Structures are given as C-alpha cells and as structure tokens.
C-alpha cells in the first residue's frame, strides 16, 4: 500500500485546478473501505469558474459536465445526498415560486450562510449548478 499524500501536497495538486481543501476528517476503520481520511475540496475563487468553463467537459455540450470533470480531475465522485439528506422535493418545489431567485443566483440558504459567503462563489457558477438541480 502506498503512502497517501500529505494535505499540503493535495492542496498543491488541487490548486492547479482552482480547487482548495476546505476541510478534512479521519474515518473510522471500515467506514469507507480502503480509506482512512476524507478531504473536502471546493472552488478557489477568483479563478475557479473561469477555469472550469474552459474545460472540455464544460464546452462539449454533453450531460453532467461537472461530474465528468470532477471524475477526471479528482478521480472519484461523491454523493452529496444520502438517504437521510435534506428534503430535496420540498426544495425543488420552492425553486419556482414567485420571487425566488435561487436559479439565477444560487441557493438562498447557501448565500445566507456566513461560512459559505467566505468562499467567493460567483453567481454564474451557482446558476450553472442550480440549472442541473431542478
């Protein structure tokens, strides 16, 4: 078994794609078979959205460009929603109510979150994701 990369090496590799480690945690033995730690990567702005929109996955017009790019760049996909995740149907139903701007600007809850506000996400990036959400 090879030695896993240190967090600073992960940060260096991710930085080339305008990604940055946003957090990390150690897993209980067997929680995710074959892994001892989990590193959460997220967009590093300014620069991420402009970088992503120039990738082959974004520009080829095929489905799921972000997932395909993530699979290529990060090497694995993660399911953000599990069986006990938030109430997706209620959220989707709320998206099209009059006065809601989540599709154009991104999730209102995320925009209101003080931690999320510090990540410099652009409205264009958020709108892209919301277009696939509902």
Provide an overview of this structure.
This protein is an alpha+beta fold. It has two domains: 1-78, no CATH class; 80-134, no CATH class. It is 44% helix and 11% strand. The chain is built from nine helices and two strands. It has helices spanning 7-15, 48-52, 56-59, 65-73, 88-95, 102-105, 108-112, 114-117, 123-133, and strands at residues 19-26, 37-43. It has a two-stranded antiparallel ribbon with strand order 1-2. The longest helix is centred in the C-terminal third of the chain and has 11 residues, at 123-133. Mean pLDDT is 79; it is low at 77-83.
Write the layout of secondary structure elements.
Layout: H1 7-15, E1 19-26, E2 37-43, H2 48-52, H3 56-59, H4 65-73, H5 88-95, H6 102-105, H7 108-112, H8 114-117, H9 123-133
Antiparallel strand pairs: 1-2
């Amino acid at each position: 078994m090879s030695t896993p990369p240190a967090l600073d090496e992960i940060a260096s590799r991710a930085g080339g794609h305008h990604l940055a480690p946003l957090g990390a945690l150690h897993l209980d033995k067997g929680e995710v078979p074959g892994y001892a730690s989990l590193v959460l990567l997220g967009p590093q702005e300014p620069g991420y959205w402009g970088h992503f929109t120039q990738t082959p996955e974004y520009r080829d017009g095929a489905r799921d460009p972000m997932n395909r790019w993530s699979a290529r760049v990060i090497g694995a996909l993660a399911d953000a929603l599990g069986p006990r995740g938030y109430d997706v149907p209620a959220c989707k139903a709320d998206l099209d109510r009059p006065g809601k701007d989540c599709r154009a600007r991104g999730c209102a809850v995320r925009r209101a979150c003080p931690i999320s506000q510090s990540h410099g996400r652009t409205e264009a990036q958020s709108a892209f994701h919301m277009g696939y959400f509902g």
